[in-house]
Design brief:
Length: 464
């Protein structure tokens, strides 16, 4: 018998709420043993009513710890140096993070074990626990934020004559088996911080804004407001056929709708990279983070293969009749351009997916052909679906990879121009740029007022 506290042993003189903190910490870390009836210094004092203590502990673990930890915590009576103590054997749980029910899945409710003590987990540690315990797609994982509302999504359902109650939320996958909101619920909530940034430019380059819009909240609201913005800024050409006026839209509405749905349904919501939609004189561009969700090629998807990154979110769009048939989106985009002499262009990497729809009525030079620098950068930089590749010790952090790829694709850019493309804070962006500069992947040019950042090109050969 070990008579000192360790990373897997905790002593308690008597039963109190602090016992539950230790149980939570062991369940979230490597498991361990809590002994009730032993002083902190290892002195065995015993308990007077071991049966009563065991009952109290068992009831408290069942009622006060979430998710249900009863299956991984077992109480038993032990004789130690002639005295009776209560031992609580805790296994490492599979539904981490475990937390105190009255505190919620926040730092004050989530504990982890470090050395011989239990500490409140940071938000970063809680997110790590969520990722480690998640089985399957990100959308199925438990959401860190549980104070969610669904005004925008409920309004969408009501327009279609559909109900969104507790039963529907469970069937859609918005609520898990423990009654907790999933990341899918967060995507559909008013609190969703994923962002779609839309901009309309003069001419064929992204130099002068005509109009812009930033949309967050429920992804259904993002879809609706984005569609309204695009409808506002897409023109048409009028011709007279047999003395009758015929209007030809610059961009086929079906193709626009499918490209927008693709950008929203298939984006990687675990990242902080905004979805970018640009309206230019000769083209319409949709750029979302995530690349292809599987090892499939574009040709596979043109064969109506349906492998959505977020299948539950796709099912919501299908139920709301926003998706007519699974796997037909890309084919429908190509069909919408039949007879126009132009065709959609796809730039696909393991990190980004971009759709470029040409303006059917544009009579200038075609700038959509040729190999995209986005493809070259991602292929050369070795960006993998799991968060980057490269030699040991040189792997880029997720935020560094996306900023570097954006600079390779669209740089040189000012700090404010880079900020426009992402949702993380200015302070975070400055730290990311500083790290990229220290690695020799990005360099600053010009004075403070006119400073721009340019990718050095070293990433193409450094394998970082």
């Amino acid at each position: 018998m070990v008579f000192s506290e360790t990373d897997m042993v905790e002593f308690k003189r008597e039963y109190s709420r602090s016992v539950l903190k230790a149980v939570v910490a062991f369940a979230n870390t490597h498991g361990g043993m809590v002994f009730i009836g032993i002083e902190d210094d290892g002195t065995v004092c015993g308990v007077e009513d071991p049966e009563g203590v065991m009952l109290a502990v068992t009831n408290a673990i069942r009622d006060a710890v979430k998710p249900n930890a009863a299956m991984i915590a077992e109480c038993e009576q032990l004789e130690v140096r002639g005295k009776t103590v209560v031992g609580i054997r805790v296994e490492r749980g599979v539904d981490r993070p475990y937390y105190l029910a009255d505190k919620g899945m926040r730092p004050e409710g989530v504990y982890v074990r470090q050395g011989a003590a239990s500490y409140m987990a940071s938000e970063a540690e809680i997110r790590t626990l969520l990722r480690e315990s998640r089985d399957g797609a990100y959308e199925s994982g438990r959401c860190l934020q549980q104070d969610l509302t669904f005004g925008g999504t409920r309004a969408f359902f009501e327009k279609e004559g559909l109900e969104l109650g507790d039963a529907q939320m469970r069937s859609l996958g918005m609520v898990d088996g423990d009654g907790q909101f999933t990341n899918l619920a967060w995507m559909l909530s008013d609190q969703c911080t994923a962002v779609v940034k839309l901009a309309c430019f003069f001419g064929t380059n992204r130099t002068t804004f005509k109009d812009r819009l930033e949309v967050s909240g429920s992804v259904l609201v993002q879809f609706e407001r984005s569609l309204d913005f695009l409808a506002k800024h897409m023109g048409y050409k009028t011709q007279f056929v047999n003395m009758r006026r015929v209007d030809y839209e610059d961009f086929p509405p079906d193709a626009v709708r499918e490209a927008l749905i693709n950008a929203i349904v298939h984006r990687d919501y675990e990242s902080q990279v905004a979805t970018l939609i640009s309206v230019l004189e000769n083209r319409l561009e949709f750029t979302s983070y995530g690349g292809l969700p599987t090892a499939c090629s574009l040709g596979d998807f043109q064969l109506d293969v349906s492998v959505p990154r977020n299948p539950k979110l796709a099912a919501v769009f299908y139920r709301l009749r926003l998706i007519e048939a699974y796997g037909t989106g890309i084919r429908r985009m190509f069909e919408a351009y039949e007879g126009s002499g132009k065709t959609p262009v796809f730039d696909i990497t393991r990190s980004f997916f971009r759709v470029r729809l040409p303006n059917r009525n544009y009579e200038g030079s075609d700038e959509l052909g040729g190999e995209s620098r986005l493809d070259v950068v991602a292929a050369s930089a070795g960006m993998g679906a799991a968060g980057g590749a490269g030699s040991a010790g040189k792997e880029l952090l997720n935020q560094e990879r996306v900023v570097l790829a954006m600079l390779e694709e669209q740089g040189p850019l000012k700090r404010s121009e880079i900020q426009e493309r992402f949702t993380f804070s200015q302070a975070t962006l400055l730290r990311v740029i500083k790290r990229l500069e220290s690695k020799g992947l990005v360099q600053a040019e010009g004075n403070t007022r006119r400073r721009v950042y340019r990718a050095t090109g070293k990433a193409l050969s450094a394998g970082t």
